[in-house]
From TrEMBL, chain A:
Superkingdom of source: Bacteria
Signal peptide, first to last residue: none
Lineage: Bacteria, Bacillati, Actinomycetota, Actinomycetes, Micromonosporales
Originating organism: Micromonospora gifhornensis
Pfam family, one: CCG
Domain Cysteine-rich: 3-82, 134-218
Protein name (Swiss-Prot/TrEMBL): Glycolate oxidase
UniProtKB/TrEMBL annotation, chain B:
Record carries keyword Repeat: yes
UniProt keyword list: 4Fe-4S, Electron transport, Iron, Iron-sulfur, Metal-binding, Repeat, Transport
Listed name of the protein: Iron-sulfur cluster-binding protein
Keyword Signal listed: no
InterPro entries reported for this sequence: 4Fe4S_Fe-S-bd, 4Fe4S_Fe_S_CS, FTHF_cligase-like_sf, Helical_ferredxn, LUD_dom, LutB/LldF, LutB_C, NagB/RpiA_transferase-like
Ranges where the 4Fe-4S ferredoxin-type domain occurs: 325-392
Pfam families named in the record: Fer4_8, LUD_dom, LutB_C
Domain Lactate utilization protein B C-terminal: 403-475
Domain LUD: 85-295
Residue ranges, annotated region (Disordered): 1-29
């Protein structure tokens, strides 16, 4: 299958490993990945901070860029959520019904990675090998906007060598929330503290999720406290194999 | 309808009532976050209610259909609010009561104060109500020499403690029993000085005090959970029975009701009476549901006044998306599931309406400029939307209100520049290189300049990657 990668600005700029892992994984499963170079950002940061007018050109760009592709994937629940739920809203509020129709059309072909794997490609065992103790944090937008359900867990359970431990109070927000983490840094940090406490209680070596943004927040806190727990994007775990473990290919977002 | 409902709807006036805080959310939140007792009480109370409510909801196989029915009824009500209110006014008047229209808090306070004065009573007993908190009725009554006595146990604790409510349903959620004992000893008339902090002893002390007050006060003031337009029937739901005492014992009853509380028929009421207790207290049915229609000779209050309050509601109604906030049945489920509320408590929101619903209702009632920090007091995690028994899409409203909020100039300039850059891939690539260079210039974990320093106060920054994804892709 020919799959267009919607890399997301954050993965492109700060967490390319998550995006590279998505490419390696899909190619290993026998698919062709293309990267439309005209893409930049879906505009979520603007919409969530209160700048819908500024987000409009970015939404138009996103639609133009991805319209030619039948299947589009992003390694981010939050950015897919933005495309599905925010793009049509912003287009309608701007009075552009034609754009709203086009964004809905593109959104219907856009999948978060675990959705693509389980629903479209029909795989749960992707042939990965990752010999670590791992806990999974379901990010709010994957959980409540996309309703990915247990798809990520099914994928993780099929990874060889992986010791999956349940995260207590998993469904509570980690406190990232984009602009929230900066404008309400104290409250965000209080939420982060509780999330870290739960992660540490699992004695996992790795905390994974399907959003680089939440992992940046959670990983930043875990690193600040020198907990030794790494945050690793789900795509990187699924892309890891016996071979990558032996050749020492980088599989973690942060050491 | 009177002239007050014609013309451009206006927002709730400043200087009266409690819809505006004195400081922005982030700084108010900082204080609450540093209070370990508050954090413990809130964490415990919200987790307990959450679990109880989840259990009760799980029992109802058609919960999602019920929510959808609730949403549909409220949408219909908002679409024909004037007509339903006129019907309500006609039925209530036919049943022997007097209907008053109040455009805002000041008018409502004046109406109620005048009505109490006319009875000659110097004291009123009050049923727990959000709307009288919203308009600051107690302060207005006190200023007129009338003593209001709150009869809901938690509301009484707040009143005696000279405090503000911090939760819609459990106004004293921020207090523990030791603090309550102290408040009672200090402020409750005729309290036994040997009072212990046993919950039963505390409740008995309150009961003693309130019994006296019930039997000797001739006027009561209440809010209303619902009003049925079909028959002109008002409804109050509660747990303690103190509300029913107020609604039945006095000679005069004055009910203040937000105009959005009307429902068309008894069949519609049935939906909300199923939704409300399970979502709010986690009960199958609330212990007391009091309903009354006008005046019944020889039974209950012989004079009944209904004050219909706007106070910014028509302005909210004018916004087709924003008006969802008027669907709220004040169950407080959104507060109990909110990770922000759970940590900051209600006072940080400034307004009497805290938590997620407060963050979307208060700024709309006052005009968003007067509560500009509230729409940002959320991580947009969406737990409130899932919990709301009438399916108010609170995250969507938050995002819309952020768009309408006044923006700091520096932020607006930066966001405009970022949007321009992101719409020009060449500039975008240059900016990506700049991110990398600026990060390489500093050490990992070093502080960012304001306004981004909130990030680095508690979190390290990731290491800058050797190349961006698109550089890697181009070089493949
Ligand atoms: S917004 Fe919904 S969940 Fe929150 S108090 Fe109102 S009805 Fe309840």
């Amino acid at each position: 299958m020919r799959i267009a990668l919607f890399v997301t600005c954050l993965a492109d700029t700060v967490f390319p490993e998550a995006a590279k892992a998505t490419v390696r994984l899909l190619e290993r499963l026998g698919h062709e990945v293309v990267f439309p170079a005209e893409q930049t950002c879906c505009g979520q940061m603007h919409v969530n901070t209160g700048y819908q007018r500024e987000a409009l050109p970015l939404i138009r760009r996103h639609v133009r860029t991805f319209d030619p592709y039948d299947v589009i994937v992003a390694p981010s629940g939050s950015c897919v959520g933005s495309v599905r739920h925010q793009h049509p809203l912003v287009a309608r509020r701007a009075g552009d019904d034609r754009l709203a129709g086009r964004v809905e059309d593109v959104a219907a072909r856009t999948y978060e990675l675990s959705e693509l794997l389980v629903d479209v490609l029909g795989v749960t065992d992707v042939g990965a090998y990752y010999p670590h103790r791992v806990t999974y944090h379901p990010t709010c937008h994957s959980l409540r906007m996309l309703r990915v359900g247990d798809r990520p867990l099914r994928l993780l359970r099929a990874v060889r060598g992986l010791d999956l431990v349940e995260l207590p109070d998993a469904e509570q927000c980690c406190g990232f929330g984009g602009t929230f983490a900066v404008k309400n840094a104290d409250t965000s940090t209080a939420m982060l503290a509780d999330k870290m406490r739960h992660v540490l209680s699992t004695r996992a070596d790795v905390c994974t999720a399907s959003d680089a943004s939440c992992l940046m927040h959670l990983g930043g806190g875990l690193s600040r406290l020198r907990t030794g727990v790494r945050t690793v994007h789900l795509a990187e775990i699924l892309a890891a194999t016996e071979r990558s473990a032996i050749t020492g290919e980088r599989t973690a977002v942060r050491p | 309808m009177t002239h007050t409902f014609l013309g451009m709807p206006s927002t709730a006036p400043p200087g009266v009532g409690h819809l505006r805080g004195t400081e922005p959310f982030p700084s108010a939140a900082r204080r609450s976050l540093a209070d370990p007792q508050l954090r413990r009480n809130l964490g415990h109370a919200t987790a307990t209610i959450r679990a109880r409510s989840a259990g009760m909801i799980a029992e109802v196989p058609d919960w999602q259909q019920l929510r959808e029915a609730g949403r549909a009824i409220k949408t219909d009500v908002m679409a024909r609010l004037p007509e339903l209110l006129e019907q309500l006014e006609a039925r209530v008047t036919e049943a022997g009561a007097v209907v008053h229209w109040a455009a805002d808090a000041t008018e409502a306070n004046r109406i109620v104060t005048d009505l109490v004065r006319a009875t000659g009573s110097e004291r009123v007993i009050k049923v727990k109500s959000m709307v009288t908190q919203e308009i600051g009725l107690n302060e207005a009554l006190v200023a007129a020499g009338i003593a209001p006595v709150e009869t809901d146990l938690a509301e009484l604790i707040v009143q005696l403690g000279d405090d503000r409510p911090s939760h819609i349903l459990v106004p004293a959620i921020h207090r523990n029993r030791a603090e309550i004992r102290e408040i009672f000893l200090r402020a409750m008339p005729g309290v036994d000085p040997g009072l212990t902090d046993e919950p039963a002893a505390l409740a008995a002390a309150a009961r003693n005090y309130l019994r006296q007050t019930f039997l000797t006060t001739k006027v009561a003031v209440s809010g209303a959970n619902f009003a049925v337009a079909q028959t002109g029937t008002l409804a109050v739901v509660e747990s303690e029975g103190n509300g029913r005492m107020c609604l039945t014992l006095p000679e005069t009853l004055i009910t203040v009701m937000g105009i959005e509380k009307v429902v068309p028929t008894w069949q519609d009421l049935e939906v909300f009476l199923q939704l409300l207790p399970r979502a709010s207290t986690g009960e199958r049915m609330n212990p007391y549901t009091s309903m009354w229609t006008g005046v019944t000779p020889g039974d209950g209050p012989q004079a009944f006044h209904l004050v219909l309050l706007d106070n910014g509601r028509s302005a909210v109604l004018a916004d087709p998306t924003g008006r969802q906030a008027l669907h709220c049945i004040r169950c407080s489920a959104c507060l109990n599931v909110c990770p922000v509320y759970e940590r900051t408590g209600g006072h940080a929101y400034g307004s009497v309406y805290p938590g997620p619903i407060g963050a979307v209702l208060s700024p709309q009632l006052t005009g968003v400029a007067d509560n500009a920090s509230l729409p940002y007091a959320s991580s947009l995690c969406g737990a409130c939307y899932d919990a709301c028994p009438v399916k108010i899409n609170i995250p969507e409203l938050l995002v819309q209100l952020r768009d309408q909020a006044p923006h700091p100039r520096a932020e607006a300039a930066a966001m405009a520049a970022a949007a321009y850059t992101m719409d020009h891939p060449r500039l975008y690539e240059a900016a990506q290189r700049a991110v990398r260079l600026s990060r390489l210039a500093g050490r990992r974990g070093c502080a960012l300049p304001p306004p981004l320093d909130g990030w680095t106060a508690s979190r390290d920054l990731p290491d800058p990657p050797a190349q961006t994804f698109r550089q890697w892709w181009a070089g493949r």
